[in-house]
Description:
The strands form four sheets. Strands 3, 4, 5, 9, 10, 12 and 15 form a seven-stranded antiparallel beta sheet that branches. Strands 8-1-11 form a three-stranded mixed beta sheet, with no helix packed on it. The protein has a three-stranded mixed beta sheet with strand order 2-14-13, with no helix packed on it. It has three domains: about 1-45; about 55-225, no CATH class; about 230-259.
Amino acid sequence: MENKAMTRISGMKTKRSRMDSPPGGRRAGAARRAAAAFAVFGYAMLAAAPAATISFSSTFGDEFYQSDGTTALPLSGFQFELGAFASGFTPTAANTGDWLANWSPVVDAAGDPLPEATAPFQEVPSFFGPYPAFNSEVDLTHNNAPFIAGTQAYIWGYDTRTEAGDAQWILMTNSISWRYPNTSGISLGDSWEVTNSNYAETLVGTVVDNGGPAIVTLGDVVIPGGVPEPGASVLAFVGGAMFAAWRRRPANSRSVAAC
């Protein structure tokens, strides 16, 4: 009997001590448990997320022009692609004919190009209304060549890269910050924007910073195997040569030809 009474008294004291504990202490304990649960959930989400997310885009107010510097870039027919060049190849304005053979857009681990790596130039919706731009986001899940960690990244804008003849291109990069991340760890993501010339360096075409939105102008390129469109002076020379050759023909030959 005495043992049972002592047990009841002990239980009552335990309940009373729990009831007498200050509310702040109970709230603090609940907060610690919630924080621990959130940390576990957050770690699980990061572990399940892609290794590295890269967004690339122009920004609100940026102006895009064709190679003449005055005609606005149309809202169709131009693409901007995120990628890298083969190891050992350095693109320059003098070797544009070799760019495509050494270029790779961002691909998945199996080597298949990601559709998100190519962003069309088009109207993009915003709070202030639609504006012309390009923007996209890719998930890089590997560091297979040429996307080895630290490799220089490029954004290549173009109207065509395969049709022989005249084309309009721009190749942009940033030698410091546009580098492919290491996908073996947790990445908070990268955002590469064509905001002004301090952020984007060009090898073909130009990006001009006027203290505000960027002015982006594509450059003229002749794709190997193509014949550039002749200018007016060339056409005039060819026409004059043909007329001179016709004048040198005998008169009877010209008469027969006229008939």
